[in-house]
Design brief:
two-stranded antiparallel sheet, alpha+beta, single chain, 64% helix, 398 residues
Length: 398
Amino acid sequence: MTKRTLLTVIATLLLTFNISNIAFAEPNSSETQTIQESKAQYEQLDNETLKLNSEITKLNNEIETINIELLKNNSEIKDTEIEIENINKKINDSKIEIEEQEKKMDKRLRSMYKTDISSSMIAYIITSENIFDLFYRVQAMSKLISVDKEIISEINEKKEQLAEDAKAIEEKQEDLKKLRIAIENDLNEVAKKKEEQEVALSNLNARKEEIMDVIEANEVNLISHSLSIINSSSSISDIENAVNNLNSLLPQLNSDYAINLTEEAIASGNNQISEYEASILEENSSSNLATESVNGSVTNNLGTYTMSATAYTGGGLTAMGIKPVRDPNGLSTVSVDPNVIPLGSKVYIDGYGYAIASDTGGAIKGNKIDLYMNSLQDCYSFGRQSVTVTIVAYPNQW
């Protein structure tokens, strides 16, 4: 049987039996110690979980930055590939241009050298008709050769420059590819670290769930009396008190299961109250009032103490594993010595209101009590006072 199933069975039994069948039980010291240890462990694990979540968020940001860098690198590699392709095309075009120029030069020379005695350049020169024709032919040949040399030189220079550019781009691409490998290694390293953190986070959450089972069982026990009142043939005044108690306890609960049980019981209790009010005359309904307090005075008095009171604030969980609250119109949280006031008791403090004794403290011994406040300023304003504390109901009696 799972812990959740066991809790369901316990809750069902509590809902089935009448309040008179429920035996009063105060938590013993070992139970209190177990609850306090669970609370401390849960808060420690909660802090570790927050730290891990923060680290995972940082790793996610780092991964995002690396991915952006990787995309940029891939884009640069693609650009250099296109650039290399264009330069290679220009080199090939230059080769074709040189070949065409060589063909033109060859054609010109052939036409110039075409004579009856010889096709050689020397023959072309020595066949000059006179000295002027000789100078003309020599000058023409020199000019033609010079122009052709310049064209070939320019094309070769262009070709060499393109080859150098291609080599530089290829080197750049190699560097980019090496950089990509380094970036991918960084990405893999961070992703691996993130995976390890997520595994650790999963283990922490599993441990938190185990501890929450203890807290959940305690919360179910805390609300069990009110649940049994609402789900039994109790008087409307008792049901009203039970609904009020559950409404006050609801903000302090952590367990979804206990919260659902509480919300369902509140809805059921309100339906019963509405049905009752609809079935009787208005003058008769006023006679069934809550018996817990009359004109601000406590009618259920199981013990009255004069205590030295201080105030505290802050989040976390109480010794019973529930959330601390300050609700002047409902149930607030107070820290007590369990040997004087059992944990889970409902108390009334003059000037403070109703509260649940759900927390403890190292300095809270004997007739001392610590009242929860919403702010540090409220604690300073309260200071240290002498208060009258009345026990309204022990655990499992309200």
